[in-house]
Amino acid sequence: PGDDPSNYYQEPDLIRDLEFPRDKLSLERVLGRGNFGQVIKAKAQGVGGADKPMTVAVKTTKDGSSADAKDDLLKELKMMKLIPPHPNVVMLIGYCTKTEPVYVIVEYCALGNLQNFLRKCRSKRDSTYANIQVDERLLTPRDLASFIWQIARGMAHVASLKIVHRDLASRNVLIDKNKVCKISDFGLSRDVYDTDNEEYEQKTQGRLPLRWMAPESLFDHVYSVKSDVWSFGITMWEVLTLACTPYPGLSPPAMMERLRNGFRMSKPVHCNEEVYDIMRKCWEDDPEDRPTFIDLVRLLEDVITKAE
Ligand code: ADE
């Protein structure tokens, strides 16, 4: 069907029936633990008819976790099944749902999450602020621009499917061995076809990613592709500071009060005016005034080509 994701959208269940035989998985070690779940590195035998086992990541609930945790994992799987493969979105490889525990099998991203990766790449001399050195082992401004552009491309794909991610942040972007960034963690995401509206009204309060949230999400519980664009702006800021915590020095209530009064984070040191301008557009008060992810991909391409 070509590059246009909408061509794949017709019957996602038909093209993505990926129930995988559990006995063809050998679990190796825990990669990460969250509140309710864990991710385990594993080898999967026979993916797509291949002879060689494939290294994968298996997302599952922890022993003795609640019915809610299992529900959340199944919801995340449901979302992932709607997403046709894209290089900048973590790919669903399969799942084991016939018996418990449920496994969601996704592609393995050897460099882990972008937040940890960026923090590890900080120079030893200056660990508080991004100190980008021209050193092959460290990240170049070009790498950082590329990460941001890739995240925008992944989100443009997600947004084209009318899926609102609701938790875009560098901790939820994975990075593979070729330094390709992949949007991950669809645990909080919602399909706007669930409602009749472009915007999703949140009904229950869980733990919220306050520092990444748009004002309309913080104050009115409204989520949309445009609130994902706000979070993208915060994620850009994280990349350019090598993953400092947004609104440094401000407590959540202080941050919210400042936001209400129109305060925005200042330009990171290693960021040019043009890139800061893009970030600021993501933080427009009126969601309609923010760019789309398609706009962002184009704006970032302009910046990258000009820098060459
Ligand atoms: N941590 C969480 N998900 C992961 C993945 N797919 N690959 C590597 N590390 C991970």
TrEMBL record:
Protein task: Receptor for basic fibroblast growth factor.
Domain Protein kinase: from-to ranges: 25-308
Positions with a binding annotation for Mg(2+): 172, 185
Origin species: Branchiostoma lanceolatum
Record gene name: FGFR2
Protein name as it appears in the record: receptor protein-tyrosine kinase
UniProt binding sites for ATP: 32-39, 59, 171
Residues annotated as catalytic: 167 (proton acceptor)
Compartments, record wording: Cell membrane
